[in-house]
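Quick one - first record:
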Amino acid sequence: MGNPFVHVELNTTNLPKAKAFYAKLFDWKLQDLPAETPGGEYTIIKVGKGVGGGMMKQMIPGAGSAWMPYVLVKDIDAATKKAKKLRAKIMKGVTQVEGMGWLSIIVDPTGAVLGLWEPDDM
């Protein structure tokens, strides 16, 4: 299947509270990355089988906590341009995640937010 969901990320207004809640609710293994990670503190969510994810502090001023799914694309630039041509708004343009890959964030014509992801190793 092309373009699977590959990552789900919680952007939260209270990272310690979210980590404590989800660690008790689910059988997830949470792994904190070093604080000097670009973008600040980040926690990897390891779920065993299935799509894993991460947690980070909400970076959009005034926005609440929200989950964001990411979809795998072969060419982040082409996929982002295609989304824009199809009337999506580009919330965050193509951005490198050092040593991991590239992302962009779109808002579809119905208002739903979705991340696009191209790993370095494609």
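second record:
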Amino acid sequence: MNARTLTAQMSMGSGGAWRLYVVVLGEPDWPTYRWDFFHAVPSVAQRRTALTSLGYEPVSGGEWSWTEDSLVPDDDTTTPVLIAAINVQAREEVSV
């Protein structure tokens, strides 16, 4: 079966809490998970649990990558915004 590969991203919101979302192009509301704690980066296990709760899992061999962005383009004096990403697919239901 050829599963559709999507991208899950994780970033810190303006209030300091991390959120994880699955980018589903063409959909107005992306599946999103928000942590209740602030500033601490969620562990890989916490991210996996969040993805599972949204109905997704990393693709085989998938690894998290990090990139840096800016709230103000072309202004290197602004605080950087860190974004993590991983390729995911919908979890397959196991039939009994």
